[in-house]
TrEMBL record:
It comes from Heterocephalus glaber. This is Trace amine-associated receptor 1. The keyword Cell membrane applies. It is a multi-pass membrane protein. It is found in: Cell membrane; Endoplasmic reticulum membrane. The keyword Isomerase does not apply. GO terms for cellular component: endoplasmic reticulum membrane; plasma membrane. Coiled coil: none annotated.
Length: 339
């Protein structure tokens, strides 16, 4: 017997036919992803908020991104989990729109933050003398404001004004829409628009910035290597730490770019292709790719925070309860001048 999500069978979505064991396995996996996302990003938020030494423009960007990823794990992933496993939506049509808008907003905001952090690192590595003048707290505030406001306007405006189905109303009503479901639907125009704003433009910025940092660091290393031994010794003493930071920044950005592309590229490619394929991509595949994209928010604190010694020191202070001691906010969690 076919199970349905709504009492009116002829307009109801079809419930998942997965076995009990498969559902338990999927729920367990998704709960692990949600908890890892929440814990990892919460530790980043607490660390940067609590320790005064971490109150820098770069870290406030990371703090804001961690907040976005934490909210994604808290407000979006649990409901997406039920939808993905059961293929039914039990929370009403209004909340479906709120959930879809929040999902698009927070996922896009996380990607925007990644793009702005790469720009910040570009100036820190490639123009360190003017970095503090260019990347002050007000510039950081503008970056954070854009990272939250543009995705919010795009997501809530598109979903609540139903612009996402504009131009494909007949297809949506006859072949996609069903009672008891909450599918994320894009027409050809909005699919391309979402692809460009949420993925292609931020991803291109990250790629260009990474390539620029890589070639500058490589050029500086070649320049030092080609200098005479006497001059080279002096340069090594003055530039050793700087060169090490350049390599570290290039490596970290490379990993960030790789994780970003691996997690989000499949979903956005399917998003832009599905309308041109008459929406033939299976629902199960689309749900799996959405969760693959969510993993970017799970990995963000690992890539951006666990790579830095200051985070490991802050984590140790938090885990051992030293954070509750008097003046713990003034503890030194990094040794050099740039966290």
């Amino acid at each position: 017997m076919m199970l349905v999500c709504h009492s009116v069978m002829n307009i109801s979505c079809v419930e998942s036919s997965r076995s009990h064991d498969v559902r338990v396995s999927l729920y367990s996996l998704m709960v692990i992803i949600i908890l890892t996302t929440l814990v990892g990003n919460l530790i980043v938020i607490i660390s940067i908020s609590h320790f005064k030494q971490l109150h820098t423009p770069t870290n406030w960007l990371i703090h804001s991104m961690a907040l976005v990823d934490f909210l994604l794990g808290c407000l979006v992933m649990p409901y997406s989990m039920v939808r993905s496993v059961e293929h039914c939506w039990y929370f009403g049509e209004i909340f479906c729109k709120i959930h879809t808008s929040t999902d698009i907003m927070l996922s896009s905001a996380s990607i925007f933050h990644l793009s702005f952090i790469s720009i910040d690192r570009y100036y820190a590595v490639c123009d360190p003398l003017r970095y503090k003048a260019r990347m002050n707290i007000w510039v950081t505030f503008v970056m954070i404001f854009i990272s939250w406001s543009v995705p919010a306007l795009l997501a809530f405006g598109m979903i609540f004004m139903e612009l996402n189905i504009k131009g494909a109303e007949e297809m949506y009503c006859k072949h996609i829409y069903c009672k008891g479901g909450c599918a994320v639907f894009f027409s050809k125009i909005t699919g391309v628009l979402a692809f460009m704003i949420s993925f292609y433009i931020p991803g291109s910025i990250m790629l260009c910035v990474y390539c620029r940092i890589y070639f500058i660091a490589k050029g500086q290393a070649r320049s030092i290597k080609g200098t005479s031994q006497k001059l080279q010794t002096g340069l090594e003493e003055r530039n050793g730490i700087s060169q090490s930071k350049e390599r570290k920044a290039a490596t970290t950005l490379g990993i960030v770019l790789g994780v970003f592309l691996i997690c989000w590229c499949p979903f956005f490619v399917c998003t832009i292709m599905d309308p041109f394929l008459n929406y033939t991509i299976p629902l199960a595949l689309n749900e799996a790719l959405i969760w693959f994209g969510y993993l970017n928010s799970t990995f963000n604190p690992m890539v951006y925070a666990f790579f830095y010694p200051w985070f490991r020191r802050a984590l140790k202070i938090i885990l051992f309860g030293k954070i509750f001691q008097k003046d713990s906010s003034r503890c030194k969690v990094f040794l050099d001048s740039n966290p």
